[in-house]
Amino acid sequence: MEKLPGALMRFRVMAYVTGVVLGALTVWLVIGYGFLDYANTDLKPDLYRWLWTAHGWLYLAYLIVGVDLCFRIKLSVIRTLAVLLAGTVPFMSFVADYQLHKYVRIRGLGPSE
Fold first, then answer.
1. Is residue 40 part of a domain?
2. What pTM did the predictor assign?
3. Cα–Cα distance between 23 and 4 in angstroms, integer?
4. Which residue range(s) make up the domain with 83?
């Protein structure tokens, strides 16, 4: 458990980065298709396309650090899958981060040991 604080920090950083990018893209998607009519035109900015690609790569990094952390704290398979799927729902990675830190704190697995 000596490497748990590093795994927690890596997961927290990736959860926030993934959550912010996915949240911003979701808002952009709603505005683009709801108000700017992206569906019928080629108005999509290149930045929009690049950010979706970046989110895919960021989510892959989120999966790697998420699996690493879940194995270190010995979560069940169902909870591990829930943590990993949280990166696909806008803003749920923040909830997963909060719940994992609460789990580690309650179990006494954190840096205080």
1. yes
2. 0.84
3. 28
4. 4-107
